[in-house]
Amino acid sequence: MNFEQTFKNIDDLLYKDSGADSELDYIGQTSWVMFLRYLDELEQDKADEAELRGEEYNFILDEEYRWPNWAMPKGADGKLDHHKAMTGTDLVQFVDKKLFPYLGEFKVKSVDNPKSIEYKIGEIFSELSNRIQSGYILRDILEYADELPFRASTDKHELSHLYETKIKNMGNAGRNGGQYYTPRPLIRAMINVIDPQIGEKIYDGAAGSCGFLCEAYEYLYERMEKTTDNLKTLQEETLYGKEKKNLAYVIGIMNMILHGIEAPNIIHINTLGENIRDIQEKNRYHVILANPPFGGKERKEVQQNFDIKTGETASLFLQHFIKSLKAGGRAAIVIKNTFLSNADNASISLRKHLLESCDLHTILDLPVGTFTGVGQKTVVLFFTKGSPTKRIWTYELKVDRSLGKRSPLTDNDLVDFLEKQNSFGQSDISWFTPISEIDDTTFDLTISNPNKAEEISDRLPNEIVEEINSLNEETNQLLIDNFFQRYLQTLDANRQEEWEISTVGESCEFFNGKAHEKAIDSNGEFVVVNSKFISSDGEVRKFTLNQIFPLYENDVVLVMSDVPNGKALAKCFLIDEDDKYSLNQRICAIRSDRFNSKFLYYQLNRNKYYLKFNNGENQTNLRKADILDCPLIIPPIEIQNNIVEVLDRMKEITDQVELNIKANTKLIEELKLSVFGLPFLITDNQLIED
Question: Whole-angstrom Cα distance, residue 362 to residue 365?
Fold first, then answer.
């Protein structure tokens, strides 16, 4: 069987279904189907084992809801019995009206045993929904899934690899996709430094796709003695996690199952909802590995659960992790590098707490591009709880290329770090900082490298030019092969003359924002959507205690006013969740149930119709009438979904091109230095240094 082809076939089917819009949907729908397929194999194994013992096995699922009865009823020949198999509307209705409600009830039935697989079944199917609308497509997907074997370890290994690839691809699937994937080479390096041992409890309070826990399982399994007790300990008493998001929880469970953990100890809960003052010794762990979300703004009631109150999500997670470590416990935590120097009182207090309660022995400084699609620089904090920090070893990771989707972080990139970290070796990219050199008022941890030599290019000009040409070739290939051809093919495949032509006023609702100037408060829980927020793609933020004008998920907000030739006029932002944003004046919100919201966003964002109001001399102020008169096209929703997928891919490509351009600029500077920074003579086409 070609596992990769099977996954591709399933994705192709989901692409054709109107209910699945992106990679995020694809993997969510694949996950629940695969979970039921796995459950069937697990039950069959247990039934076979019981039969060998002369015992009767009590199946978890009632007869009607077992895979061979609803999904793949087969005849005597072992092939699908088309007379018994549901196909079309009846199949979708069974899944939506009977199967999911039945499975969701297991959560209530097993509430006293949250670690059981019964409880996991209930959690998955009470909060996940079937989005596959075509019963004929669902039938084909079930047939493909039925071909996937789950029993042999080699099969599971290959399936887990492919599943990891799908999770990785989610990072390029639109908003929030990146939250699911931490580069596996980085995870493996973090685990290598921490070196967990069998018998230790390992925890990730922001588990996501459970990449840390899966890699920790592999690390321990490869190194431990394969005794019955050790295997039982590894399966049942080693790996623990918590995850808030519905889809991430399902993906994480499935990922762990495919890696060989039969009943994952993953709890579907908001970790930050737990008061850290209630954490007792029995709730603590020997090892914590995590990449918590950062950039969020937590509510006041959540902040009350912590000693150091802040809205920054990652800072609250860090407090939780410190509190959740046993004395002598070790942690490796990914966090944005601004944590090292933020000047607000909460950040200063947290750094002080970390340094005084833990030995922060290592900081790994990661390059831009480590996380695909994320421009924020990050660091990894390695610390041991129980004794104060005396000195910090910092390693500045350098790679010889621009990191991105086509050039991701590799295990080889981290070899030098691991070698030097083992002995805390010093070099031009690694150094010690004694605690005495840390400012005891700011506790700023961004200490410059005292060993850094003056950067002089030691590469020949032709080598640098070769790299520039390589980047240019990649850029051209991206633009020509991957974007334009697919984009044009997608448009040509549809009859554009059948698309409805409308206007914003005819097809959408319009809302004007309200003034927030007097309501701005740095401790506010709501983000003020103003011009700077939109023009910075949400990076520059102000907050308010009062949600003066609420915004809702899928609202498109648009800047109505800007300076002459400004870059913010008509720039849009797509609201990603309810109860988080408040709309400022001179910004409007546009809503419609006739569009895929992202398709509407793509049409409105910097629309040429709006830009023509800019005369280059005066401030441009778009009136409501100007906004409403903008023409729009309204293809069928399935076409909108297809085009959104293509445009998402376009953005991914243009972002990579932008990174390539920045890398080229850096290389050109290096080329100048190579040619002019050192004295040399050129004779017979050879470079000879003096």
Answer: 10
Give the model's pLDDT for residue 622.
Answer: 95
Q: Domain limits at 369?
A: 178-451
Q: Is 167 among the domain residues?
A: no
The tokens of 158 are what? Answer: 């290959």
Specify if 169 maps to a domain. no
CA dist 420 to 25, 415, 435, 449, Å? 42, 9, 20, 16
Residues 592 and 675 in one domain: no
Token pair, residue 446, equals: 């961004």
Q: Give residue 175's identity as a one-letter amino acid code.
A: R
The answer for 167, left when phi > 0, alpha when psi is -120 to 50, beta otherwise, is: alpha
Residue stretches of the chain with pLDDT short of 70: 1-2, 151-153, 169-180, 295-296, 372-375, 452-498, 652-664, 666-667, 669-690
End-to-end CA distance of the chain, in Å?
63
DSSP string, 254-281: HHHHHTT-SS-EEEES-GGGS-GGG--G
Note whether 292 and 433 are same-domain residues.
Answer: yes
Tokens 């209705």 sit on residue: 93
Residue 97's nearest CA partner among 59, 119, 70, 118 is 70
Cα–Cα distance for residue pair 34/23, rounded to 1 Å = 16
- Give the pLDDT of residue 647: 76
Q: Which pLDDT belongs to residue 111?
A: 80
Fill in the amino acid letter for 500: E
- Asked whether the whole model's pTM tops 0.90, one would answer no
Q: Are residues 410 and 539 in the same domain?
A: no
Query: 């939506």: which residue's tokens?
Result: 96
Helix axes 3-16, 23-52, angle to 10 degrees: 130
What is the pLDDT, as a whole number, of residue 484?
Answer: 45
**b/e string for 360-394 if b means 16 or more Cβ within 10 A?**
bbbbbbbbebbbbbbeeebbbbbbbbeeebeebbb
Helices assigned H by DSSP within 20-116: 23-52, 67-70, 89-94, 100-104, 106-109
Closest-CA residue to 529 (of 577, 562, 576, 573) = 573
Amino acid 370: pLDDT: 84
CA distances from 483 to 185, 487, 488, 653 (A): 29, 6, 8, 7
